[in-house]
Design goal:
alpha+beta; 11 helices
Length: 431
Amino acid sequence: MAPVAVDQVTDLLKQKLDISDVKASLTAPVVASNSVKIEAPKQPDIEYHPNEEKWNARTARRLAEDPSLPQTPLPKSFPQKLDSPLVWEGSDWKDESEWVYNLSKDELKEIDDAVKHFHSLGKPLGHISQSTFPLPALGPVLANLARELHTGRGFFVLRTIPVASYSHEDNFLIYAGVSSYVGELRGLQDKDGGVLAHIKDLSQTHPAKTIGAPAYTTDKQVYHTDIGDIISLFALEVAAHGGTSRISSSWRVYNELAAKRPDLIKTLAEPWPLDGFHSFGGDPPYTLRPLLFHHDSKIIIQYARRLFTGFLGLPRSTDIPPITEAQAEALDAIHFLGEQEALGLNFQKGDIQYINNLSVFHARDGFVDTPEKTRHLLRLWLRNEELAWKIPPELETTWKRLYYSVTPDEQRFPAEPEIRAASKGGGAKYA
């Protein structure tokens, strides 16, 4: 009796078979003519933190086994090269004035007036919008910056909200109110309507087995995307040391891979077994989709490395298909290529960072907190319906749940940091 071989797993994934069919095929024994057992396909030697030596060794081994890989044709309709302001290198930016917008005293006064106006309405925070948080002068400025996200460089920083002058809840209000001019829809981040997330080290108060994402540790975060159109972070406080926010153009990474390793573009554009959203103890146990899409003349990448490697209390499930050696190489390639030409942002207390999540990777250096300076960020997942890119069919269900599944009255703004259901260790289910 012998489990199926690696090439059979790859064929199954390419065919986008129903998950139950794939799982049945993976677990069903195959009788060999000599009745000798052969080993089941195993997860490659890959962890959440990328190892450059292992990446180089895997690349050398795969190219030695098949020297024709760099001659692999790109998937149908995928461009040979992207030409856009979204294609940039970190060294292209000489001064932070190129991406930082400094709020004036008049604009800060306008924000303060909007806070008072919203309070006068007596509405819950879920009703924060352009109409309930009026910014007559700053609003058009933010609308232009939103265009920069979608058709320009893909990122900007708003500096700086005087967070110490406001209560915790009023900082939530300011963040959501200002952000409503960048993207009016707030994405669902957790169960019970949670649309605001706290990014903070919880390793001192929570057992490691309950933490399944680096967002809740002081650990380095590798290059990845979240889900949704726009990722925004608001710094209530920065770390005593480290914690630099880093971003990289995924469109530049695409160009480099398309020129030198088109086989990895092909790999990224094929279905992968995601131990992710609705997984880690959820039902179904995994989903299949590509990480890379070419849709409406745009390249879109959506991936998080931990979904394929696991992290701390949320290891990758052992009863789902392993990723392949090609997929392991692709994960390392997009991380290290992203790292090579990244831009470090001087993220300060009171800054709000906005990123086009469909074309920009983000990462974070490890950091050290002190009692006086404890890194604490807030996060929103936003969508601007006027400017938003068209979403591939494979992502539509997620986007509908993300942006259209809760009403303003159902939106929740947690007052204190909590681990999202999707990032809890110990097999916690997703919302």
